[in-house]
Amino acid sequence: MKRPWNHDHAMKWKKVMLVSVTFLVLSVSFGGTPQSYASERLRDRNQNQGVPQADLSQLSVDDILQPTYGKTLAAYRDKGYKPADSFEVSLKAGGYSAFGGSKPGTETVDGTSALVWERDTQWLEWTIEVPEDGLYSLAANYYPLGGKRLPIQRELLIDGQSPFREAQRVYFARNWMDRGDPLQNNQGDDIRPKQIEKPIWIDTPIADGNGLYSEPFRFYFSAGKHVIRMNYLVEPMALDEIRIMAPESLPSYTEVAQAYEAQGDQAVEAVNVKVQAENNPMKSDPTIRRESNGDPLMEPAGNGTKLLNAFGDWRWRKGGQRASWTFSVPKDGLYKIGMKFGQWWGDGLPSYRQILIDGKVPFQELAEYPFSYSRNWRIETLHATDKQTGEADPLLVHLTEGEHTITMVAVVGPYQSIVENLTADTQKLSDLYRRIIMVTGPTPDPNFEYELGKKIPKLIEDLKTIADDLLVQMDALNALSEKEPSTVNSLRMMNHTFQKMVDNPDIIPRQLSEISNSQTNLSTLLMGLQNVPLVLDYLLISAPDTEYPKVKSNFFQKSVSTFKNFIASFTKDYTGVGSVYDKNQAVQQTGPVLEVWVSRGKEWAEIMKEMAEEEFTPKTGIRINVNTLPAGQLNSGSVNTLLLAASSGKAPDVATGVDSHLPVEFAIRDAAVDLSQFPDYEEVSQRFLPGSLIPFRYNGGNYALPETQDFNVLVYRKDILKELGVSIPQTWEDTYALLPILQQNGMQMYYPISSLGFMPFLYQNGGEFYRDNGKKSALDSPEAFQAFTEWTELYTNYKFPVAANFFNRFRTGEMPVGIADYLTYVLLSTAAPELVGRWGVAPSPGHRTEDGTIDRTSGGVAQSVAIFKQSKHQKEAWEFLKWWTSKESQVQFGQELEALLGVEARWNTANMEAFSQLPWPEDDLKALTEQLKFYKEQPYVLGGYFTPRNIDNAWNRVVLGGMNIRESLEQGIKDINKELRAKQTEFGFTPE
């Protein structure tokens, strides 16, 4: 039976009213003039929010708004700009027209009178005049001066403007080499030689330091006078001259071959010069180095020992890294160049190298030479493939009798345009994501129809643009590869996802995580495309008719090599790093031997061992055996190797990388050495922050020295805070004012969830963890209650997320502000290339004190170095601790580690003098140094492991269970005090 018409009409009228009201509410919430970019919407929404707008200078994002060199060069072509005709002018560096800061001096540097440009001189300007409109190149003749061993960096401006993004950070490389040939340890293995800088005068064109472009930069100058300005960024240098010249155009090999024929150049005969690649080439980066390869046809072959018989490998993967080898030929003529190489990375994609002979690229084909993918070693003659016949024609070079240099530079090559386009797609995705969560929030209701296609202008169009561009980049990658690489499969999946969203926009809120994941995956792919690794065994400079041998080892050769390694395993001591000494020999004959355990990777241990062999042992006569343990094996709170060793009477003399609580755990059991018994302990302890020594104190003794220390700092997205129109929060009151703006725009702030998150509030409110020298918990004080209230209200009142992957959400822009630890800082520095220039660090927010200063007291996670009671050489072990924690040793270790492994392994030493001398970026170092002034760790007492556990439990009861704050904290305090009393009774001990 049908309902009456008036009832149906009424129901329809109610639905119309409901839809109208809903639309009105959404219009008020998300309304305003439609904008095509998130930044415009953010600025409109956040006017007059009452948040201080001062100090926005720290949020400068000019460096990321500039077009790239690739886009600038394309714009030059569109405007019809042509390279200038033959022209070159040299400007002596000392003839500058203006300077900023201190006046630079002039000194004789390595035989050349030059301008010495150090940190106090902020900028220099030179005035030049060019005869005609056109594109010009710049070059500089410079000499690296001593510093923090980083590449020298300057910003380049022309007539007060940066011509393109890459010019804002121009790199001038240093020159490195091995200190000598490898030595052998007493196991027969090669010891990797130290990397030393060999400064020389370097004449180089101004080019991209990251290998994205194979030719020098081209700059447009109109006819007349211009001002070239360089701003000091990093590291000092001596500067001889700057040159402006017409760009050099490389001839093709066909043109060069015709010139050979016209000049009567002939191919040489019966010449085959072999250059072992590992034999100490000059390098621009100390991280590219000798490597060990166990293939039986390597020269030389290992035969059961570890020989450093190759060069490059995975470490020679970053654009701009170069290596040069010197060789001699016996006569003039035409030579071919062969290389025994391995390129088994990239899943089918080639790696590219620019090849220079005597400092110049001889023809176009060597500007970006591809080394194709294969799983095996091979010898390849540098060649060009004939497009008609498909045959490989050798690329011959003319060499005169005598010495020459061949240089290979890692370049991104044809990947450059792909990288640039995918970078743009990543940034579009980030912008799209933020525009979407402004409407849906970070956790959309899957049952609500948001109608994003209507509410977000150009959303579908932008998604379609990204999806189509991914198809273009897939085709470009397939054209470069001999097989379809896995990168293409990843891009195809993303394209499929975005195309589904374009076809059905209603699914976008339910697949919001797909956009975030795609952005993360694209960033990872971008890093992979810019990695172009290559490993070399040797280079051959040969007569064109030379036949090269086959270098792919067969099954029989590999079997023989495996058998030799098996036989060697019966005589080789695998327990230590480097030379292994017999600690049971009479001390009078050989000197004492310390057993040192290192809870880190083998390369960390190798550097420590080499430093000790070179410095510590010669000075003291004390030798060390170094053994490595997996990271975390020296942590407290679980059964670990050290505990088991101590129980069996086989504890080491010294352990490094020890968890901060473990020394006191051993001290409680009278198994650790009180370092304050040594007369110079107080002097040595001055190397560290007072707050970092707190966890190692127990019952009046000091049982360890800090080795590294973590830190918590504020990290922020410059671009997003600039769009929001807000400044970096200095206090928690500033933070609370910032939160509504973030939340209105679908964003959040991150704060770590653990008892470490409670520590800053406790200390900044004047509270402590214990009283009566560790007998009882001090969390029953008014200060502790205030701190616990503030901490829990972050989550109950201010809606901080209780669980989040901050690294990923920071990249997507969901969390543009957060408190991050050292590991996150390193990740952002190395694994988020799309954020370069878009983020920064600042001291953590604090509480303003009565005198107007801001108390930012906070702790971290320290690692330590300790001596154990079972040691028979405690005085010698103390000498080792003093040497190891000294400024000189820590600086050298940090430099060697970063030279070996890159910025990913930057050493966060606890020695503050050493910390300031390591190669932290200047802006970051200022923020970190300011934060570390307030460093204060939590003390550790008998039963103290129960304190963080019950603080976390109290937090869970309040935030997740809704329990009253005071009741939850009081219950936690009772549980803590109960365990403290139980442990004190168990050990029959009352702390003094």
Walk me through the structure.
The chain is an alpha+beta fold and 992 residues long. Helices cover 35% and strands 22% of the residues. The strands form twelve sheets. Strands 1, 3, 4, 6, 13, 14 and 16 form a seven-stranded antiparallel sheet that branches. Strands 17, 19, 20, 22, 25, 28 and 30 form a seven-stranded antiparallel sheet that branches. A hairpin with a 4-residue loop joins strand 39 (770-771) and strand 40 (776-777). The radius of gyration is 32 Å and the shape is globular. The model is unreliable at 1-57 (pLDDT under 50).
Question: How would you summarize what this structure contains?
Answer:
With 992 residues, this protein is α+β, with helices and mostly antiparallel strands. Helix content is 35%, strand content 22%.
